[in-house]
Specification:
There is one protein chain. The chain is of the alpha+beta class and 570 residues long. Among the domains are: 2-153 and 247-318, Alpha-Beta Plaits, CATH 3.30.70; 343-408, no CATH class. Helix content is 47%, strand content 12%. α7 runs antiparallel to α9, α7 packs antiparallel against α18 and α13 (349-365) crosses α14 (371-380).
């Protein structure tokens, strides 16, 4: 049985994977189809929620499809899910994978990054996709083509040949320059110069003693491997600037039925043929496992809802264009604007923030008085008493998972952000707040990294980006949405993010860790500095913000993983 990839509804398709009769027999027990790139998983005796969550989580670090992962890893080992979570959740502390258990699992494979951003924009859902820092996108489809999406509207236009050639050129540059970038990072961060944190000590590899090896379950080979993995991740962090939004990826989705209904309707209202096709396929496959819960999508009310979304979006675009046609594009480059914060325009915004938090604490833990009374009492408190109250509420935080409670949700911020597409892709995961982006565009510009100049590829990179600008503008005139497929990750995108102080703790402390991408770490650190200027009493309690620069950010994490893997089982 062959899996056929269809980019859109009437596409003839291309073969991407093959299963033997025996494999298909096993897969039929756990998936809704074995011949399409979108399918749902059947939860039951053969495939439990623990296995489902672990399998979808594996997408992050593998090129394999979900069905191949099942055949290779989960079918032979019924404890694979349990073992996965014991390691990656309990030992390594990867919280996001926990979200993949409990919903209805769906796999969307060989879909573009542009479509995935549409999918992941749905707030109430959990997603894990192939990571551009752990997976090298050098593999080709069985037909010999690089893994990029071919939009039917672009391919049917006068720009089809130029589009295909540019996508191939971008992938070829990405593949060709990755080994050079790895060598460059090694030359500038030599293994013997690295500090490895072993227990409470930071040592060079030459300082690893026999006692350390035995007490911390670590070897010189483990340190070397951690170094190699970290160097590769750092190199991929840089060269991903070449990858276009058409890049094909795999994403695992876990949602409840109501969220799926909203997602599918939104996808079916999209101006992109790919998104509409994915929405229809999702509906078809979910109809096989939860038919009564997705039946409204195809009835008169569902069709009306799809038309409503499509029509209102089109009307809004027309009005926006009419009202803003005279506005010239903003300057290119990274930009962070703190547009709103609690207390803005008032005498002391920090005092306003403290008063709002204190009022919520007084009401929550008080007895028999209204919120209005609590707010009045909060205003009457001295600065010292408010501090004493908030300190008690925050508690003694001994790690970044110890977060303050809901009282901090009464302090809010709104940021206008402009950064590389790659940054947006990473930070979009924080969906609890309110964030929306403009369409991906080339008019915010790009900047060749210093590392590109150091290894002699800056001129070639700038030439390729100039080609992308020209093609984007040509396509955009008649197909503004489809033009987004052309945009490489290295271009700047614009979005806003509104969230509260409680979310700020999670956002800044998590995304500033040394293991994070250097681009988004810098943006998050600067957002923290903006808040620090207006609400120092908030930032002073963020004990786990990390403001240090880090060249090979994954090194400490890789060391911890090695030590946990080597730890003898009880």
């Amino acid at each position: 049985m062959t899996v056929v990839l269809k980019f859109y509804e009437k596409d003839k398709g291309a073969e991407v994977e093959e299963f033997s009769d025996a494999e298909r027999s096993e897969l039929d027990k756990v998936v809704t189809n074995t011949d399409s790139n979108v399918y749902a998983w059947r939860i039951g005796d053969n495939f439990n929620p623990e296995q489902s969550g672990a399998l979808l989580s594996r997408y992050s670090r593998t090129m394999l499809t979900g069905r191949r992962l099942y055949i290779n890893e989960f079918l032979p080992n019924k404890d694979r899910g349990k073992e996965f979570f014991a390691a990656w959740l309990k030992d390594y502390g990867d919280d996001s994978i926990q979200e993949m258990v409990g919903g209805i699992p769906v796999s969307c494979e060989y879909v573009s990054n542009l479509a995935v951003k549409d999918i992941e924009d749905s707030r109430i859902g959990s997603y894990i996709e192939k990571s551009s820092r752990y997976v090298f996108f050098d593999k080709k489809l069985p037909n010999g083509e690089f893994m990029f999406y071919k939009d039917p509207d672009i391919m049917g236009s006068a720009f089809g040949d130029r589009y295909v050639q540019l996508m191939r050129d971008l992938f070829e540059s990405y593949v060709r320059h990755t080994p050079t970038m790895i060598g460059y990072i090694k030359d500038n961060n030599k293994l013997e110069d690295q500090s490895f944190r072993i227990g409470e000590k930071a040592i060079k590899i030459s300082g690893l003693t026999k006692e350390m090896e035995e007490s911390h379950n670590i070897t010189e080979a483990d340190l070397s491997k951690a170094y190699e993995n970290s160097v590769k991740a750092s190199a991929l962090d840089f060269v991903r600037d070449y990858l276009p939004m058409s890049t094909l990826t795999h994403v695992g989705v876990s949602m409840n039925a109501r969220s799926y209904e909203n997602l599918i309707i939104k996808m079916m209202a999209s101006p992109l043929a790919e998104s509409r096709h994915i929405g229809k396929m999702m509906h078809k496959e979910l109809d096989k496992v939860i038919p009564s819960l997705v039946q409204r999508i195809s009835d008169r009310h569902g069709e009306d809802y799809v038309n409503f979304i499509a029509e209102k979006n089109k009307s809004t675009i027309d009005v926006v264009n009419d009202l803003t046609g005279d506005i010239k594009p903003d300057e290119s480059g990274e930009r962070i604007d703190l547009l709103y914060y609690t207390g803005k325009g008032l005498g002391d915004p920090n005092e306003e923030a403290e008063t709002a938090i204190a009022a919520a604490i007084l009401h929550r833990f008080g007895n028999a008085y209204s919120m209005a009374r609590a707010a009045k009492r909060s205003q009457e408190l001295s600065t010292a008493d408010r501090k004493r109250l908030i300190d008690a509420y925050v508690g003694n935080r001994t790690n970044r998972r110890h977060k303050p409670g809901r009282a901090f949700e009464n302090v809010e911020y709104m940021f206008g952000l402009q950064g590389r597409v790659g940054i947006y892709r990473d930070l979009q995961r924080h969906r609890v707040g309110t964030q929306e982006r403009q369409n991906f565009d080339v008019r915010f510009g790009f900047k060749a990294r210093d590392a590109f100049r150091d290894i002699g590829i800056a001129d070639e990179y700038e030439s390729k980006m100039s080609e992308a600008i020209t093609l984007y503008k040509d396509i955009h005139k008649s197909m503004p949405y489809q033009a987004q497929y052309v945009v490489p990750y290295g271009f700047y995108a614009s979005w806003y993010y509104r969230f509260n102080a409680r979310q700020l703790f999670h956002f800044c402390e998590l995304r500033s860790t040394p293991a994070g991408h250097p681009d988004y770490r810098r943006m998050v650190q600067n957002m923290y500095k903006h808040v620090e200027q207006v609400h120092p009493s908030i930032t002073s309690r963020m004990n786990y913000i990390n403001m240090d620069p880090k060249t090979i950010g994954r090194l400490d994490s890789e060391i911890r993983i090695a030590m946990k893997k080597n730890k003898p089982k009880a």
